[in-house]
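Pilot study result, target chain (110 residues):
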Amino acid sequence: MCAINFLKRTKDGILLYCHCSDKYQLLFKNINYNLTLFELERFVHYIENVNESYWEEEYKNSVYDKRIPIPSVQANLMILLDLVDLYELRELLNYKTKETKYVTFREIDY
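Predicted structure:
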């Protein structure tokens, strides 16, 4: 049986490490990433450096509510996030800190 470490959890995501495969699994909303340490570090760096105000302004007239694009290697696949998603994903990827962030009443989806 493979040993799995739970590294971080948020309202809509979880970050795991599997010792058998030496891979990280990032489940966020309905997307599942399987990443090596190098890939995870590059993804963390990319997400930390997304300029959300630029993308919000660039796509302010978009028909989509989610305006922050996250490209993928697959040319026909683009992941779209809104500000709340981006902030939560950043919190999830900040897995090296052991701070516990409590859910606020605004984050509860009634």
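One observation from the pilot: The mean pLDDT is 89. A full batch analysis is planned for the follow-on phase.
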